[in-house]
Amino acid sequence: MSTTTAARGRPRQRNPLVTVADVIRRQPKPVRVLLGALGILLLYLLPLINPPLISPSQSDFGAVLFNVSTYVLVALGLNIVLGYAGLLDLGYVGFYAIGAYTVGVLGSLHAHVPLLLLLPLGALVATVSGILLGAPTLRVRGDYLAIVTLGFGEIIRLTAVNLQWVGAAAGISNIPRPPSIVIFKLPHVSWSGFVATIDLENTTSFIKFGVLDQIPYYWLALTVIFIILAGEKRLVQSRVGRAWEATREDEDAAELMGVPTFKFKLLAFSCGAFIGGLSGGLFATRQAFINPESFPLLLSILFLAAVVVGGAGNRWGVIVGAIIVSYLPEIFRPFAEYRVLVFGILLIVLANFRPQGLLPPKRTVRARQADEELEELEEGAAHV
Question: CA quadruple 11, 17, 22, 26: dihedral positive or negative?
Fold first, then answer.
């Protein structure tokens, strides 16, 4: 027997690396539930703990965490469009801006609608705009769709600059904040090196949405993220998710199998627009002031980078990608002149060594392994 034949006869060695997620999945259900509850509690307490190794020294940690949360929320919405349905959207910042301007216009500029109604209204208006944009444009694919959505993002920004009814270049101020309900106060943790003490003088009111303390805004955004995650998981595991996957892998084959691909693409577009508008509304309430410069084209690129870096199609991957894209600039803030360069170098390294993203979906990993096995079999057959 030749060496090639013997190699073909040996079973393929699997990667022995065991991830933390694999270890958690092997635990009994009560243990998994307890670990999940502790993890969620830790996320809520994170700005109060203010860990010295991960907290940027020159920034308000609560404000940084809120910014990260908005990126995570936007990445989850864009992941539905790009990761699940396979639609390249380069103008996602347009939906983000529509949600923010809806909250600003109806909450301050031309009306005084309560904020509890404003956020759903902003998401609803963004959803309708997604349907109006997608209905005529989702019949094109690939690069053409990317160009159309890129133009949509710029059209929204330029409209905001020139339309006096939405404040034009001056923007909108005095956007209402969420209603405050002060129930109790939570003390912060103070650090002296690696020694922690409870600081009873530095507290955060639960829940008071003010100007100086940004932590309640982070709690609000984190709660919305958990709600979106629960709804997105059920949607992806349903018939709709299977239709999106079929459309992404091969749209023509999906059509031949009876899948109404246009309807499901439009549904993905509208779901992504809903989450984008909701995130924009949260951003507007925290800022209390918005103008067209708050929604540059660069934001669309960063949103897309978050999904691609994390792994399009994997909800946990895009969360990691959003954290990296939004949190790294805060870490490198002392090197403000070089942080864009560092971020670009990291993207180049990732593109070469992890082109599927940091946490690609399992189906992508299985497909890549199947391709490698097929190539090995073909090479072995060629040498026989």
Answer: positive
Are 125 and 106 in contact by the 8 Å Cβ rule? The answer is: no
**Interatomic CA distance for residues 123 and 105, integer angstroms:** 14
Question: Within 13 A of 362's CA, how many CA atoms are on the CB side?
Answer: 2
In this structure, the number of other CB atoms found within 10 A of the CB of residue 321 comes to 29
Query: Quick check: 45 and 218 in contact, CB under 8 A?
Result: no
Report which of 144, 52, 114, 83 is spatially closest to residue 272, judged by C-alpha positions: 83
**Whether 119 contacts 343, CB under 8 Å:** no
Taking a C-beta distance cutoff of 8 angstroms, is the pair 187, 48 a contact?
Answer: yes
Q: Which residues pair with 26 in a beta bridge?
A: none
Tokens of 79: 């992941």
- Pull the structure tokens for residue 356: 């599927």
Query: Which ranges in the chain belong to alpha helices (H)?
Result: 3-9, 20-25, 29-49, 61-78, 93-104, 115-137, 142-162, 215-236, 239-249, 251-256, 261-287, 297-310, 315-331, 339-353, 362-383
Q: From the centroid of its chain, how far is CA 298?
A: 15
Residue 118 to residue 96: CA distance in whole angstroms: 14
- Enter the pTM of the model: 0.87
C-alpha to C-alpha distance for 96 and 296, rounded to whole angstroms? 11
Written as one string, the DSSP assignment of 242-280 is HHHHHHHH-HHHHHHTT--HHHHHHHHHHHHHHHHHHHH
Task: Tell which phi-psi region holds residue 63, choosing left (phi > 0), alpha (psi between -120 and 50) or beta.
Answer: alpha
Closest listed residue to residue 91, CA positions, set 289, 367, 297: 297
Q: How many CB atoms lie within 10 A of CB 98?
A: 26
Q: Which two tokens stand for residue 384?
A: 């026989």
Contact between 357 and 341 under an 8 Å Cβ cutoff? The reply is no
How many degrees, rounded to 5, is the angle at CA 273 between CA 271 and CA 276? 115
Mean pLDDT, consecutive 10-residue stretches, the chain (384 aa), reads: 43 49 76 89 91 77 92 94 90 94 92 89 94 89 87 92 91 89 86 82 86 90 95 90 88 88 92 95 92 90 89 90 87 70 79 82 70 72 69
Q: How far apart are CA 71 and CA 325, in angstroms?
A: 8
